[in-house]
Every structure is written in structure tokens, then in C-alpha cells.
Amino acid sequence: MDLSLMALSLPKLLSAAIITLKLLSISLIIGLFIGLLFAILRLSKNSIINRFAYVYSYVFRGTPLLVQIFIIYYGLGQIEYFRTTFLWVVFKEPYWCAIIAFALNTGAYTSEILRSAFQTIKPGIIEAGKSLGIPNKIIFYKIQIPVAIRQSLPAYGNEIILMMKGTSLASTVTLMDITGVAKHIVSTTYKPLEIFITAGGIYLFMTFMIHNIIKILEKRFSY
Amino acid sequence: MDLLTFGKTGWGDELFYATLMTIAVSITAMFIGFLFSAIFTPLKLSNNKFLNLIANSYTTVIRGVPELLVIYLFFFGGSGAIMYVASVFGYNDYIEINAFITGSFAIGIISGAYSTEVFRGAIQSIDKGQFEACKVLGLKRYIYFLKVIMPQMLRLAIPNLSNVWQITLKDTSLISVTGLVEIMRQSYIAAGSTRDPLFFYSFAAVLYLMLTFLSMKLINRLEIKYSRGL
Asked: How far is Cα B36 from Cα B54, in angstroms, rounded to an integer?
């Protein structure tokens, strides 16, 4: 074990952690909106809309994230027409391709988490709201959503950790996140054990922090 | 569709064998994972604080670190570590480990961490009375485990093990970085030589979907079988 090399690589890996966190937070925010949208579609009584949302989450949960990134990054650029549209500005950047893939992926998992949270809300709560004459919209925003958030927090916490680990795949499309930088350092120093263990330590610390933050939030939202 | 024909002109046969490779790696990894959980589940449930700590650090570390990093660690660090051990015993030649073995082992360790948690949860949710009854009847330890605890544990564990299987199956796509020719690697090769990445990666996605779909069907049958009489 070369401890001095581990200490030397730590600042580089830590500055790469900023990119990991950026990828994670942006894709989680977009993914949350996608998830909420598809959870609502899943609960719709129209069977076509329902089916569409189901297929979306099935496809994204049933295929590896690596395939999804590769289709978006390598695949979409192949379509000639696509390159002429304004979307190409976004899709030619590996950074945004990774974020789009992560957001679509976490959106599929989030939609399942939120759907089951909405379904486990006791109908009595909604009925109570209705009998008090509260409009449907306000019941949804002020009653259903807060209760669903509380219900889904533990599962969503796991999803955040899974997504954090997923961001390491950004290194396969040339991005310099923690894993990318670690691999780069290994290629110049030939010390895989030391570097990958240091990188793993940073990820572990991040997992630990996310876990604790979610625990605190669970306490705050409990009723 | 010409791209998918069998034989020299198409990629059909290559992708078919690659799919078999994905299945082989997934099953091997799942099995290695079971071996790991056979060691670590008892440690987790033991009353000894030190043994608990060992098992908890295994599951926490593996589940808190990206799969890709574990694979890199094994692939790049594995042969170095083995060569170091071999040099202690006086063997100094270069040792290269097979990509299939390293890959299955890396995925197996990850899969093992998840299945350890599943087995622990399953055993803990078995009614306490069952354990006490076995003690009262004076059953031998292994009989009481095999005949009483094991069948109940499996029934409770199967739904969650099916999730672990899905995770394991999808994780095998990451071994493509080590050069093992499974679905992802084969698609990468095909995409490179035909310049048609969209088609081949989408086809890879379809293959993975088929695998997850078919395995879910099989596991559902197992679930029905193990919940007979309930």
C-alpha cells in the first residue's frame, strides 16, 4: 500500500466529486419531475395512458443504465435529421447525454416509488378532505403529495444512493467524474488498488451522508 | 435486419453467443453471491459483536460503492494482488486471470451483499415460535435449519431474490469494460464495425428486456411453487 500516493490523489478525486454531485443533483431534479408525471399517468383511468407509462418504466427498469447511456450518446448522433435540430446542441455534449440518461432512468424508478406511495394513501384521508368541501386540486397538493412524500422517503433515499452509484457510468462517455479521474490516475501510476480504494472511500462517504440526510428528513416529515 | 443474420455477414450468431455469455456470467455471479451470503448471513445474525461488524462492513461497503469501481478494482487490482500472494510463495511469473472468472467474481461479491440482506430479512421475519419449537423438540441444528427454517426462509426470500437477480443481470453489462464478450461488448464491437450504434445498442436493450421478462416469468413460477399450502 502506497499511502502517500493515496494522500496525493485525494485532492484530485475530491475535485472530481463536484462533477459527480452535479450530475447526481441535476438528474435527480429532472428525474423527480419525470417520476411525478409518470406516476400520475400510471394512476390515470385511461388504459392507453396507463399502458404507456407502464411500458416506459418497464423498459428503463429492465435494461442496464449503460445501454441507455450508449443509445443516447452514441446512438442518437447517428440520425442525420437529428443533428440538424436545435436539440443537437444538447445531445452532442457527453455531459448532457449522461444527465438525460440518468434522469430518464431515475424517473422510471421514482415513478414506481411515487405510484405505490399514492396508492397506499388511505382513502379516508381524501374522503375527509372532500367532505370538508376542499377542492380536488388542493386535496392533491396539500394532502396527497405531502403524505406521498413521507411514504416514499425511505425508498427514494435508496434510489438516490443507487443513482449516485450510477453516475460512475458517466466515466464511460469520457466524463471526468470520480471514477473517470480514478481511472486516469491509475493509467499513469499503475497503482489500481490504492487509487480505486481511495475513490471507493469518497463514494462511501457520500452514501453515508445521503443516508443520514434522508433519516433526518424522515424524522421531520413523520406524523 | 440484414445485420442480424447468422453466419459471416450478419451479427446474429455473435449476439446469440453473447447472450448466452451474459446468462452464464449472471448465473455464476448469482451462485458466487449465494456462497458469500451463506458465509455472511450467519455472521450478521450472530450475537457476537465482532462478527456482526465484519458482515455489516461487507454489505455496507459493497452496497455503498459503485459497481463499476468494484469491477475496476478486481480487474486491474486482482491480478496484482494474486501475483503478490504468489510471489510470497516464490512464484514470480506474470499471472493473468480469465475475464470470465474476474467478472463473475466481482459481480458475485456485489450480488452477495444484496442477497445477504435478503436472507437476513427473511430469517428475521420468521416467527420466533418456530425457533423455540425446534429447541423444545430438541432437533439437531442442521435438521432444524434444513427442514424448518430453510423452506420458510426461501418462500419469504424469493420475491426479493428476484430483484437481486435483476440487479445482477443488469450489472453484468458493466463487465464489458474488461473485454469479456457479453451482450454489451458484442454490441460495441458490432456498432464499431458497422457504424450503426443506434441499431445495435437498441437491440442490446431488447435482449436485456427479453432476459428480464423471461426470468421474471420463471421466478413467478418458483414463487407459486414455494408458497403452496398457504
From this structure: 13
